[in-house]
Amino acid sequence: MDRMKAMLRIFWDSCLLQSKERAISQYFMATLLFQPVIFTLISVGTYLYGRKPDLGLFAITGTGLISIWNNNLWTSGDIIYDERRSGTLSLILATPTAFPVVLLGKSFINAITSILAMGITFATGIIAFRLPIGIADPVDFLIGLVLIVISITCLGLVLGSLFVITRNAGEFVTVANFPVYILSGLSVPLTLLPLWTRPFSAVLAPTWGNILLNQSAQQLGGNLLPSYLWLIGLSIFYLIVAGVLYRRVEYLALRAGSLEQW
Amino acid sequence: MRANLRLFLGGVRTSWAMYLTWLSPATYIGVRIPRMVLQSLFFVFLAKAAGGDQLARFALIGNAVQIAVFFVLQAMWEVFDNEKWNGTLQFLLASPANWLPMMLGKCMASYGDALVSTTLTFAVLIPALRVQIDAINLLRAVPLIILTIASAGALGWLIGAISLSIRWGHLICNMLGYLMIVLCGINFPFSALPGAVQTLGNLLPVTHGLLAIRAVIDGASYASVLPWIGLEALVAVAYAAIAWLAFGQRLRATRQKGTFEQV
Question: Which of A257, B81, B148, B156 is most open to solvent, judged by the fewest CB atoms within 10 Å of its CB?
C-alpha cells in the first residue's frame, strides 16, 4: 500500500514538474497552439478546393490526432533529451524509483494538454471555413479521445525507453512523424495506400483512434466496439513492450555503469 | 573586389565544413532523405484524396519546391544564429572586413542542399506515384527553382536578423514553412485563396516563383512567365535588402553599446 502511494506521489510530482516546464516552453506552446491551426488550414483547404467538403470533418479529426501525436512523440523525445542535457537522466535511472513511472507522469501530462489541440482544430474549421461540425455521438467521441490519449502515451513509453540509449531521438522523431500520419490515415484515406501497408497501420494506435473518432462523428459506419478493443489491446501491448524494453535498457545502462556511451 | 571574393570563398569553405560535421552520410541517408520524401508524400496523398491525380501532380511540384524552401529558411536563419552561439559574433563586429560576402558564402552549402532536396524529392516521387512530368521541361525549370530557393533564403536571412535577440527564430521558420503551404499555393492553387490571403501570399517569396515553375514544367516559354520571374526577383531583393539593413543596424548598435551578449 505504501509502495503504491509512493508511486502515485512520484507520478503526480512528475506531472506537476512537466506541466511547469511545458508552460514556459515556446516550442511546446507553439506546437500545441499554432500547428493545429496551420495543418487544419492545409488539409481542409485542400479538400474544399477538391470540392469534397463532406471530408472536412474527416480532415479535422485527422489533424487533431496529428497534433496529439506530435505533442506526444516530440515530448517523449524531449523528456529524455532534457534529462540528459540537465545531467539528471543517470540520477533518475540510479534511484530506486522505476524510471517508467517518472516517464509515464511526464508523458501523461503532455497527452492531457495535447487534447487542447483537438479543440483548436475544430475551432479553426468552424471559424476559418464555417464548416458545420456535428459530432453525432459526443460521448463516444470523448471516450474515444481519452482512450487514444492513453494509448498514445503508452506508445510514447515504448519510444521513451528507446530514446534512453540514443542521442538521436530528435532526428528519429522528425522522420517518424509523417509515416505515422500516412499509415494511420490521418487526414488521408487509408484506401490510397497499397494493401501490404495494412499490418503496419493496424499496430498503430492513431489508426484505430481515427476510425473511432470518425465512427462517433458518423463519418464512418460500423460498430465502435472493435475500435475500442483495438485501442485497449494496443495500449496493453505497448505497455508490455515498454516494460521489456525498459528492463533491457536499464540492464545495459547498469552493466556499463554509465549513460555516457549513448 | 579580390578581398570580397576571398571572404566569400572562405565563407563557402566554412559552410561546407559545418555541413559535413552536422550531416554525416548516415544522417543524410537515414534521416534527411526519408524526411523530405515522406513529408512531400503526405501532402501529395492529401491532394490526391481531395482532387485526384491532377491535384496530386500539382501538389507534387509544389511540395518538391517547398521542402527546399523549408530547409533553406531554417538554414539561413541558422547562418545568423550560429554566429551568436559559436561565439564568433564579436569577431564579426571587430573585423574591418565586409560581413556580407562572408555571410553569403556561408549560405552556399545550404542552397546546394536545398537544390539536392528538391531533385531527390522529384526523383523519388515522380516514378513512385507515376506522375506525368516532362523531364526536359523539369530541367528547364531548374533556374527558376534556384531563384525561388534564393528568394526564400532572403526571408530566412530576415528572420535571422530580426530574431537574434528574441530567440524565436527556429519557431518562426518552422511555423512559417508550414504556413507557406497555404499562403503560397503549394497544395492547391493560389487563385483559390480569399482575396486578403492572396495579398499576403503576394508579399511572400515562393508564390510567384512557383507559378512560373509550374508554367514552365507545363511547357510555357520563359518569355511568357517573365512577369512572375520579375516579381519573385523583386520580392527576393526586397527581403534581402531589409535583412541586410536589419543585421547591419544590429551590428552597428551592438558595436556602439558594446553589448553583444544581449544580441
Answer: A257
